[in-house]
């Protein structure tokens, strides 16, 4: 049995290793701080495995090429930061509508606009859910360490393929640029999901057929199915429709194929929550401070627990509510002016919710979290 | 062969490539040149003997961009201006496929202008057919990057004060290796040029000058579809003859034929060399 490969990597580089493990064979991107190393590593590694890398003229073109390549059969990814993600929204929406699997990595930096190119932030949390116009369900996963970045990128590809949808990996500048010693998973160690291909003949094939789990089998161009892909609202054959009986069918398909299967998507890490009276909820690099602060507070007997969200969207309403059931108080730690907290307030109107925010471009420290715990207790 | 028989054969070829079950009529106004371009494309592909499965038709947004939906190929109807980057992804992922982009003057040269020049620069093996009717038809007759100076549109109600792009010069300057122009009046030539463009290895552009009698024609008193077709006939000058004419003589003329044709390395081929050289490296 081959030993697991040990590597000292940045989060951005780990992301590419995870993507390749998951089967990525196409990357299109545009340089932007602090995500550029994802493109650089992809440019270096992809030719070695017969994959393809292209630097496009902008982020709009990057996500367009990613969608085109995915429909042509290659698992595809792009990486960017806030300003680039804003430009990509148009064709991320196209990927939602056309049900095209792909992965978009957003290494978050401070905003709005060009904001803080080299500084950490979590202020694109809501953009990952509501960025593109229209009604749809979004999936976003969020690592907090370099090792997590490998597994969460793999999970992002698996979810994209499983649900035929774009998936956002919400990284941030700190994880992206931190170097940590990690073990890469061995071949066969983690499950890899590949999109379901049609078994029907081309004559019987219905491109966006309604299936029991809402996901239609997806052929690649060139495999004989010759179907139509359009960003216009379409019927189950992929042809544009304006019919009042067909429009809701499409929109409900986009919603239910994800909303009805949240168990397969939600991932939460829980520490010391069994008897906790205070819960700290966080994700990404803020979660690192939260976890460490919880450990410190426990040592002096404080009944504090930590809840780390690995999947932000769909928001894990029921699970989170259950986990925090016995807590009277909740601290929401995030690197923005309050985005995650709006979801927590929505699902736990009965709790005393305190916010711990930092939006000056620096990370939350465990000491800051400990101080907040003292205040709340 | 009798004329009637010939016509039937021609229509059989067309029907063979139309999508079964797709509800016609099309979104195009009666007399629109888009149908002529569609017929030219069908016959060019048929003459080349391509299989339907190996053709990918990609388009953006606009009247012309509806074309792929009617044809029985792999079709990708994308967002406004973005057909070329989508096509770049599709081509690069499967370089053996024939990827053809159908676009319009607004789609390719305004919102998609950046993608257009960079697709030319890369010399990726994609054929772009730019149907130039000098106006935004789908949204109701607004000025486009090819609306000539002084002409009227709903957003240039007092005459256009802007200059216009020449898509062929732009493409050649940006690095496209095959550039040609014809009009919807000159269907046999258009068909031939589309065939040559698809066969060319590298980025090829065919500009098809077309009529929007509904907006451009009406707002500029150019008459109906037939009158506009006749005008294309009058204004067309073959590229050979045009080379002997002065700039003043060429004012308001449409230069037709192969305008630019050079050989350069193609993007997917060059990338494959990189893959071949580094495959398996650790």
Detailed description of the structure:
The complex is a heterodimer of chains A (377) and B (282). Chain A has 377 residues and is of the alpha/beta class. Chain A contains twelve helices and 16 strands. Chain A folds into two domains: 178 residues, 3-Layer(aba) Sandwich (Rossmann fold); 108 residues, Rossmann fold (3-Layer(aba) Sandwich), CATH 3.40.50.920. In chain A, strands 2, 3, 4, 5, 6, 7, 8 and 14 form an eight-stranded mixed beta sheet that branches. Chain A has a five-stranded mixed beta sheet with strand order 11-13-12-15-16, with helices on both faces. In chain A, strands 1-9 form a two-stranded antiparallel ribbon. In chain A, α1 runs parallel beside α6, α3 packs parallel to α4 and α9 crosses α12. The longest helix of chain A has 18 residues. Chain B is α/β, with parallel strands linked by helices. In chain B, strands 2-1-3-4-6-5-8-7 form an eight-stranded mixed beta sheet, sandwiched between helices. The longest helix of chain B has 15 residues. The interface between A and B is large, with 45 and 45 residues. β10 of chain A pairs parallel with β2 of chain B, so a sheet runs across the interface.
String of helices and strands of chain B: HHEHEHEHHEHEHEHHEHHEH
The Cα radius of gyration of chain B reads 19 Å
Shape of chain B: globular
Number of domains of chain B: 1
Taken together, the total number of domains of chain A comes to 2
Write down the Rg of chain A: 21 Å
- Under CATH at level 1, the class of chain B stands as Alpha Beta
Q: How would a textbook summarize the main sheet of chain B?
A: 8 strands, mixed
Helix count from the secondary structure assignment of chain A: 12
CATH topology of the largest domain in chain A: Rossmann fold
Level-1 CATH class name of the largest domain in chain A: Alpha Beta
Proportion of beta-strand residues of chain B: 15-25%
């Amino acid at each position: 049995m081959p030993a697991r490969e040990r590597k000292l990597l940045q989060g951005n580089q780990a992301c590419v290793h995870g993507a390749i493990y998951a089967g990525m064979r196409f990357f299109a991107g545009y340089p932007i701080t602090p995500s550029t190393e994802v493109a650089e590593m992809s440019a270096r590694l992809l030719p070695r495995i017969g994959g393809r890398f292209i630097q496009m003229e902008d982020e709009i073109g990057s996500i367009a090429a990613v969608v085109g390549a995915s429909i042509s059969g290659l698992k595809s990814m792009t990486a960017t930061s806030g300003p680039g993600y804003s430009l990509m929204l148009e064709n991320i929406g196209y990927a939602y509508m056309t049900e095209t699997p792909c992965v978009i990595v957003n290494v978050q930096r401070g905003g709005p606009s060009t904001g803080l190119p080299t500084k950490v932030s979590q202020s694109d949390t809501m953009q990952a859910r509501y960025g593109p116009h229209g009604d749809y369900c979004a999936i976003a996963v969020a690592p907090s360490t370099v090792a997590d970045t490998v597994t969460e990128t793999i999970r992002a590809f698996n979810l994209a393929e499983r649900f035929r949808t774009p998936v956002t990996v919400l990284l941030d500048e700190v994880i992206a640029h931190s170097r940590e010693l990690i073990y890469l998973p061995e071949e066969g160690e983690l499950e890899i999901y590949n999109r379901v291909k049609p078994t029907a003949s081309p004559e019987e094939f219905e491109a966006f057929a309604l299936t029991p789990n809402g996901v239609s089998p997806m052929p690649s161009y060139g495999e004989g199915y010759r179907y139509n892909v359009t960003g216009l609202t379409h019927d189950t054959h992929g042809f544009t429709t304006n019919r009042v009986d067909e429009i809701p069918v499409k929109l409900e398909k986009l919603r239910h194929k994800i909303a009805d299967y949240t168990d397969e998507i939600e991932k939460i890490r829980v520490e010391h929550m069994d008897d906790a009276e205070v819960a700290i909820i966080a994700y990404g690099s803020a979660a690192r401070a939260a976890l460490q602060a919880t450990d410190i507070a426990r040592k002096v007997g404080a009944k504090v627990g930590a809840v780390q969200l690995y999947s932000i969207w769909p928001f894990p309403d029921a699970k989170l509510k259950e986990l925090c059931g016995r807590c009277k108080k909740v601290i929401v730690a995030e690197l923005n002016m309050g985005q995650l907290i709006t979801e927590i307030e929505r699902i736990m109107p009965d709790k005393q919710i305190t916010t711990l925010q930092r939006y000056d471009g620096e990370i939350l420290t465990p000491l800051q979290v400990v101080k907040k715990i003292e205040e709340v207790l | 062969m009798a004329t009637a028989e010939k016509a039937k054969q021609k229509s059989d070829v067309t029907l063979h490539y139309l999508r079964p079950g797709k509800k016609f009529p099309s979104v195009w106004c009666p007399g629109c040149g888009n149908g002529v371009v569609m017929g030219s494309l069908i016959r060019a592909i048929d003459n080349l003997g391509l299989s339907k499965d190996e053709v990918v038709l990609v388009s953006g947004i606009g009247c012309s961009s509806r074309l792929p939906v009617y044809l029985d190929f792999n079709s990708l109807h994308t967002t406004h201006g973005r057909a070329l980057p989508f096509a770049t992804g599709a081509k690069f992922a499967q370089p053996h496929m024939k990827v053809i982009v159908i676009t319009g003057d607004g789609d390719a040269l305004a919102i998609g202008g950046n993608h257009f020049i960079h697709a030319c620069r890369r010399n990726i093996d994609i054929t772009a057919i730019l149907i130039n009717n000098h106006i935004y038809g789908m949204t109701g007759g607004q000025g486009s990057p090819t609306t000539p100076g002084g002409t009227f549109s709903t957003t240039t109600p007092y005459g256009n004060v802007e200059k216009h792009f020449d898509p062929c010069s732009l493409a050649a300057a940006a690095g496209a290796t095959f550039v040609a122009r014809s009009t919807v009046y000159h269907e046999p030539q258009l068909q031939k040029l589309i065939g040559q463009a698809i066969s060319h290895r590298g980025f090829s552009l065919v500009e098809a000058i077309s009529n929007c009698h509904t907006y451009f024609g009406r707002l500029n008193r150019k008459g109906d579809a037939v009158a506009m077709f006749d005008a294309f006939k009058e204004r067309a000058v073959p590229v050979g003859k045009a080379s002997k004419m002065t700039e003043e003589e060429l004012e308001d003329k449409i230069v037709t034929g192969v305008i630019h044709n050079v050989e350069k390395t193609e993007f997917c081929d060059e990338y494959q060399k990189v893959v071949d050289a580094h495959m398996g490296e650790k």
